[in-house]
Amino acid sequence: MSFLLVQLGQTELPTAVFASFAINYFLLSIGSRFLLLQVLHGIYRRNAPVHRVLIYGAGRTGLQLAAALQKHPHMRPVGFIDDNVMLPGCRFDGLPVYSTVGLQQTVSKMNVSRAILAVPSLSSTNRKQITRQLENLDLQVYALPCYAQLMGDEIAISQLSPRRISQLIGRKVHTEADFSVTHDYKARSVLISGAGGSIGSELCRQILEMRPRKIVLFELSELALYSIHQELNDLSSDQTIRIVPVLGSVADKRLVDQVMHAHQIDVIVHAAAYKHVPLVESNPIQGLANNVFGTHVLANAASDYDIERFVLISSDKAVRPVNVMGASKRLSELIVQDQAERAGRTLFSIVRFGNVLGSSGSVVPLFEDQISKGGPVTVTHPEITRFFMSVEEAVRLVLKAGSLTCGGDVFVLDMGKPVRVIDLARQMIKAAGYRVKDVNTPDGEIEIKITGLRPGDKLHEELMINQGDLVTAHDKIFRVREGQLSQIEVARILKSLNEAVLHNDADEARLILAEWIYDFDSQAETAAQ
């Protein structure tokens, strides 16, 4: 326009003036718009809540995450946490690296409200331990869903997921601490069998908070025992609490007697068991030897040494069992019920519940692994259902149930409504930031594959043999009436089963279970194999 006006006015100006004016005008227009945009963003950020975030892991993934968070309107990275002793004091991309030592002071000083795990190589055990430590500092803990999503150059902040996987089961979780059970464990010597397992290790953590005199960790797996022993030593701030690792099987009577005598045990929580259904189906003799005779030895020792309490951790698979694992747990219940009838001072109780989210052998870690590899996610049957509960809630209720017993009680935990496993698989795929690949969504990323029921699988689990239950002082715990056997009948079963185990006769062992365990069908087992 200015060029035309100059021509009409017959004014002589160099063409370069017009080019320079056009360029400057363009740059000023763009610059002013960008400046106004930044001002608007600044106003928006000032009014919106901003969460100060610490990133656990100062590696390549952590640096990528920090760069992505710099552009996020609601999260502001303030530093890294790393257990590498060479890194604290360093700065990466302008952010300081803090040690894992003295985290409470760091969190308070930096006014941090969230922590994000950015170490995809962490094992499941280490991830749970770190998550628990951070949650104890009143931080909301998030994690990058899986390693596969870190392979690109950028990280999607929207795919950060809370570590509390219990949210996927859609039930109200009992989270409040019950201090009324503390007196049952405070200043006591507590033996936890299967201490390195998913349930056993959580029992150790929660009982440690109750300040017992001693915790005896009884565990068959050397690696699991080492891991939980190290973790408890790290968690314990009270040097007066002794933590004693014992490596061996609870079926070893001489070892059990030695431990009972040496450590003056007051309370036993028996969580040791082989619980993976297909593995026990393939190895029935080993499963029975560990689950049944381990319980028998430990329950006898509880009576012989006149301890205060004995709590057996049982399973919903003990109800009308269709597999050897479930039958072994039901027989363990009968053994404990028999001991309760003849016990002196010892209060015996049984606590039965369903699947624990994230435990070894559970579908959750299997689905997580399959999703991280890009699928497919395998489900045995489209209609199969299971009860689910978080390990923290399950253990909290187990400890409470143990304090409610009058001796010989069978307690059932309120597991909520059964969940279709295929629905859980869909929710986990969605939570990881993917879409399910099916007929309606052919361009989805993760496929769900139906593999068929395995030997010993039930389509639907149950929690009670007989219908009806009795309420207790806790609304999540029910006392059920279950049939039991006489002392002579239990002795006959154990004698016959011991012969079958000694001769490694799996068929005979199944026939014995079918004779005495309600609704157990040995022929169905054999046919399934």
Beta-strand proportion? 15-25%
Assembly state of the chains shown: single chain
Which ranges are low-confidence, i.e. pLDDT below 50, for 5 or more consecutive residues?
A: 146-158, 524-529
**How many helices in DSSP terms?**
17
Name the strands of the widest sheet in spatial order. Answer: 10-9-8-11-12-13-18-23-22
Helical content stands at 40-55%
Shape: elongated
Please tell me the overall pLDDT: 80
Helix/strand/pairing class, anyone? alpha/beta
End-to-end Cα distance, whole Å, is 89 Å
Radius of gyration: 30 Å
Overall description:
Helices cover 42% and strands 18% of the residues. With 529 residues, it is α/β, with parallel strands linked by helices. Strands 10-9-8-11-12-13-18-23-22 form a 9-stranded mixed β-sheet, with helices on both faces. It is elongated, with a radius of gyration of 30 Å. The chain starts with a helix and ends with a helix.
TL;DR of this structure?
This protein is of the alpha/beta class and 529 residues long.
Which labels suit this protein?
elongated, single chain, disordered C terminus, alpha/beta, seven-stranded mixed sheet, nine-stranded mixed sheet, 17 helices, 23 strands
List the helices and strands and how they pair.
Blueprint: H1 2-8, H2 15-47, E1 51-56, H3 60-69, E2 75-81, E3 91-92, E4 95-98, H4 103-110, E5 114-117, H5 124-135, E6 140-143, E7 161-162, E8 189-193, H6 198-208, E9 214-219, H7 222-235, E10 242-247, H8 253-263, E11 267-270, H9 277-282, H10 284-304, E12 309-315, H11 324-342, E13 347-353, E14 355-357, H12 363-372, E15 377-379, E16 385-386, E17 388-390, H13 391-404, E18 409-413, E19 419-420, H14 421-431, E20 436-437, E21 446-450, E22 470-471, E23 477-480, H15 487-502, H16 506-516, H17 522-528
Parallel strand pairs: 1-2, 1-5, 2-4, 5-6, 8-9, 8-11, 9-10, 11-12, 12-13, 13-18, 14-17, 15-21, 20-21
Antiparallel strand pairs: 3-4, 6-7, 16-19, 18-23, 22-23
Helix pairs in contact: 6-13, 8-10, 10-11, 10-15, 12-14, 15-16
